[in-house]
Amino acid sequence: MSQLEKVKELIELRAKARLGGGEKRIEAQHAKGKYTARERIAILLDEGSFEEFDMFVEHRCTNFGMEKTKFLGDGVVTGCGTIEGRLVYVFAQDFTVIGGSLSETMALKICKVMDYAVKVGAPVIGINDSGGARIQEGVNALAGYAEIFQRNIMASGVIPQISGIFGPCAGGAVYSPALTDFILMTEGTSYMFLTGPKVVKTVTGEDVTQEDLGGASVHTTKSGVAHFSVPNEDEGLSLIRQLFGFLPSNNMEEAPRRECTDPIARMDDLLNEIIPDNPNKAYDMYEVIGAVIDNGEFLEVHSHYAKNIIIGFARMNGQSVGIVANQPKYMAGVLDINASRKAARFVRFCDAFNIPLVTLVDVPGFLPGTGQEYGGVIVHGAKLLYAYGEATVPKVTVTLRKSYGGSHIVMSCKQLRGDINYAWPTAEIAVMGADGAAEVLYAKDIKEAGTPEKQAEVAAAKKDEYNKQFSNPYNAARYGYIDDVIEPRNTRFRVTRALEQLRTKKQVNPAKKHDNLPL
Hints:
alpha/beta
């Protein structure tokens, strides 16, 4: 065979590999409103940047006549490319090839790109669309999953890992995305569950659809497993690109800085008036976030889950920052199990990847009740406390209004190594609110007042007295727990300047094999 013939053969083999499971299956994929693996990669990466690996890999299984059914690439497309010019490794499962089911060789392909990613310090993005383990391969497929999981674990905190669920992801397969940093799901076409509807029906008698058991809505609102849901794949791939822009390539680097077109000294008079005079009245924390960050551009994470706390990425003077903020508009901004877990994991991610933390505090306490106590709110609240106390990245905290009791401590207080802690003049930093404090401190005085009317008068007077003495930021400022009381409309400038001051911060935790986070 001449060289030209060999080149022609290569071109033909490449064309065959790019067809995956063939035209009919590609048409079936499109009919479901889904792209193929290669189409997804082409949309995700910069045009022309993708370099594919292992295009000619085939499975090795001979059970159940599988030797007669072979496809080049074996159900997953792997390689590297760039997003906004930055290197990233990708793998995308190909549902047109044996339902995207995982074989031993498919696992080896995925493991190879993950190993490359860790070796060179680049993020890895996995796009999941698979019917699960390839049953014909038995324990080899299970071993393949375990090899992938081990790499997810070793890469955790070293390189960012992002999972896009663009189709089925069931059984043991769900553990790989669960071990990554962020999970994105498409509405109506993706689902995740350990045991499917048939097994659920057999074991528990429950009738449930795939969507109700593990659809995007379930995992972004109820379980908290997924961080983002999108109506279609185009928006999903665009969102992954947007998220990528806030992250560094690895744990030894900082996130890329963008040119800031928003003046850092910009003042927003809205902030001077946003806190209601009535302490029981809500306001919208999103307005505060939008007024403080660059150009109001905020990428919220977990927006539909535990809405009493807001987390997400923004920029301050072009620098990527993680925002954690209580939301008074939802459940009065109270902390509970889900909010604590949600914020704790985000704080730990930011700390692992050198992203400074800006915390906006308005928290009345932890949610009371048997449901929370039986659910282990003590341990879950401790996760948030632990995450802030462990974090060594720059931490700037602004207390806007309420900051009571244990919830004051866990929201990046000075004693948990908060670097710069500001407060608005409306801040109330105390063990508890005036109502509860008056009942405890002045119970005897109130009781001895006589008639119910007199008791009410004394109680009101004592509440006022307590408010004047403690429900202001100056008491905490006297002890240095608050570095400065600032004018609300000046928050953007003060936080930005604090972050600039902390750019060269170096803090190291004691040497240890690993910590024992309260799980």
